[in-house]
């Protein structure tokens, strides 16, 4: 018997049914097994095709630096002259 390609959205749907209390833990495990969870996890561990593309990762995952001062709002930047400077 050939195992179908895992469908992450169906696996997530099964998981969410369990989280909402709609199915028993045994039923969700059966759904995960028949849905190809093992294959999906093995691909992830091996660095296979199931990894998110760079466009799917958030800035915190990519290690992007904090926004530069020009990208912050004026209220987040320090005033141009100190408060105790003569006028």
Helix and strand topology:
Layout: H1 8-19, H2 25-34, H3 37-46, H4 59-62
Order of helices and strands: HHHH
Strand percentage, roughly? Answer: under 5%
Q: How many DSSP-defined strands?
A: 0
- Helical segment count: 4
Largest sheet: none
- Tell me the span between the first and last alpha carbons: 84 Å
Contiguous uncertain segments of 5+ residues: none
Provide an overview of this structure.
With 87 residues, the protein is mostly helical. It has a domain of 36 residues. It contains 4 helices and no strands. The longest helix is centred in the N-terminal third of the chain and has 12 residues. The chain is elongated, with a radius of gyration of 24 Å. The mean pLDDT is 75.
Q: What descriptors fit this protein?
A:
single chain; 87 residues; 4 helices; 0% strand
Summarize the structure.
With 87 residues, the chain is an all-alpha fold. Helix content is 41%, strand content 0%.
């Amino acid at each position: 018997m050939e195992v179908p390609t895992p469908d992450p959205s169906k696996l997530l749907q099964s998981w969410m049914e369990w989280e909402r209390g709609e199915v028993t833990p045994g039923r969700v495990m059966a759904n995960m097994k028949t849905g190809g969870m093992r294959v999906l996890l093995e691909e992830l561990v091996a660095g296979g095709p199931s990894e998110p593309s760079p466009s799917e990762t958030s800035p915190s995952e990519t290690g992007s630096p904090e926004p530069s001062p020009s990208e912050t709002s004026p209220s987040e930047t320090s005033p141009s002259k100190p408060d105790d400077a003569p006028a």
